[in-house]
Amino acid sequence: MQNTVTEKWLMIVNPNAGVKKGTKDWPKILKLLRDENVDFDFQITASKGHAIEIALNAIGDGCRNLCVVGGDGTLNEVLNGITGQKEVPWTEITMGMIPVGTGNDWCRMFGIPFDYLKAIRVLKRRKTFLQDAGKVTYYHKDEQLQRFFMNVAGMGYDALVAKKTNMLKEKGLGGPLTYMYFVFASLFQYNFIEAVIEVDGKPAFKGEIFSMNVGICKYNGGGMMQVPYAIPDDGMLDVTLIKKTSKWMVVRYARKLFDGSLVNLPMVATFRGETIRIRSTGRVFLETDGESLGHTPFTFEILPRCLKIVTG
């Protein structure tokens, strides 16, 4: 028996978002939603991965409007709840966001305000946009797994920094500058790794890499623009590769991470394609939308204009 479809919003609230900011600010957001006469229910996540389960169950119960009250990691979980079911076409489900995370990088791409009242009014206006999604196949130990993402995936040094940041956040510590702290603090612990990269089946790079990003959108790491050419509905994956370089050069040019001009540096290469394959001699690790995952080999694929999102 099919459940009745409802247009009511389901707010998926992560109390740990923004280093417990979700817990502190949810009563304020709840009041604003009621004051603005938004028709909604809400569920609060209890653990890592719970938002996937909430989204899956909500869709099965007839919900077609899911709003994340959290950060990019919670958004990624809701996405993987949507993609984890086969009953409802993805484009029939609308995703919105009230940003409470530390980075909120996906919201930067789509002009969703960090001010709660303004973000709620964006949700009410319901201006929608069909964006691409990415799918990555990777390994955790010897098991092959898949994960969908809708912002940026990072490998190598980027994944190391994300892992250290996430470990601190899991202890209820850190803040908006934590990622930047680890960008510098982890430099001299990192070893370059030999990798082979193919784009759409053709050789693109072979050599030692420092860091790499595959983007649907432009921003990650709390406002860094590491994939400045990314267009979220062009059916292409954008890749920025930082090759082996002096670690002092990373310190010297760190500011270029924020305005996108890093792509003009001689140690940086960019590629575009529908499929990206990466193999390595040692393990290169991965994060998607800030969530730490597994290791090489990787296969990235694009899924064009398959997600309906509310944009600012």
Write a structural description.
By secondary structure, the chain is an alpha+beta fold. The chain has nine helices and 16 strands. It has helices at about 15-35, 50-60, 70-85, 105-110, 115-125, 155-170, 180-185, 245-250, 255-260; strands at about 5-15, 40-45, 65-70, 95-100, 130-140, 145-150, 150-155, 195-200, 200-215, 220, 225, 235-245, 270-275, 275-280, 285-290, 290-310. It folds into two domains: about 5-125, Probable inorganic polyphosphate/atp-NAD kinase, domain 1 (Rossmann fold, 3-Layer(aba) Sandwich); about 135-305, Sandwich (Tumour Suppressor Smad4). It is globular. About 45% of the residues are buried. The strands form two sheets. The protein has a six-stranded antiparallel beta barrel. Strands 10-11 form a two-stranded antiparallel sheet.
Brief synopsis:
Helices cover 29% and strands 38% of the residues. It has 312 residues and is α+β, with helices and mostly antiparallel strands.
- What is the C-alpha radius of gyration, as a whole number of Å? 19 Å
Please give the oligomerization state of what you see.
Answer: single chain
Shape, per Cα inertia axes? globular
Overall tally of structural domains: 2
Helix content: 25-40%
- The beta-strand count equals 16
Question: H/E order of the elements?
Answer: EHEHEHEHHEEEHHEEEEEHHEEEE
Task: Compute the separation of the termini in Å.
Answer: 37 Å
The fraction of residues assigned to DSSP E strands is 35-45%
Q: What name does CATH use for the topology of the largest domain?
A: Tumour Suppressor Smad4
Text of the CATH class of the largest domain: Mainly Beta
Question: What summary fits the major beta sheet?
Answer: 6 strands, antiparallel, barrel
CATH architecture level-2 label of the largest domain: Sandwich
Question: Segments where pLDDT lies below 50 for 5+ residues?
Answer: none
Order of strands, main sheet, comes to 7-9-8-14-16-15
Structural class: alpha+beta
Count of DSSP-assigned helices? 9
